Amino acid sequence: MQNLLYLSLLSKNIKIKIYRSIIFPVVLYGNEISSVIMTENHGLKVYEDRALRKIFGRKRDKIVEEWRRLHNEEIYDLCYFPIIFRVTKSRRRWAGHVAGMGDRRGA
To answer: Do the beta carbons of residue 3 and residue 23 sit within 8 Å?
Structure first.
């Protein structure tokens, strides 16, 4: 599936649709059914950054006149859709709150 993100025949919009419709839900589902620890969380962030770099490609630097990789902040600015890392982090906070309630109240 990741090889589709490398194809130059596909437009950026098609690659984003593939990412949002296939990769994003699968990773979120796999993350919800397992307990996420910090090493898995870091690996998830690295995977997502790599996939987004494949989608958005390189950028021509006007000062040096060379092609360069996009920095993480630039990738996140280009994304108009939620990032997996942030979505899982927000869901984990809610789940931790519910788990901390204990037997006092039902969820």
So the answer is: no
DSSP state of 69: E
State the Cα–Cα distance between residues 46 and 41, nearest whole angstrom: 9
15, 5 Cβ separation under 8 angstroms: yes
What was the pLDDT predicted at 35?
57
What residues in the chain have per-residue pLDDT under 50? 107
Residue 106: inside a domain: no
The count of structural domains within the chain is 1
Alpha helices in the chain (DSSP H): 12-18, 24-32, 38-56, 72-78, 84-101
pLDDT computed for residue 4 by the predictor: 73
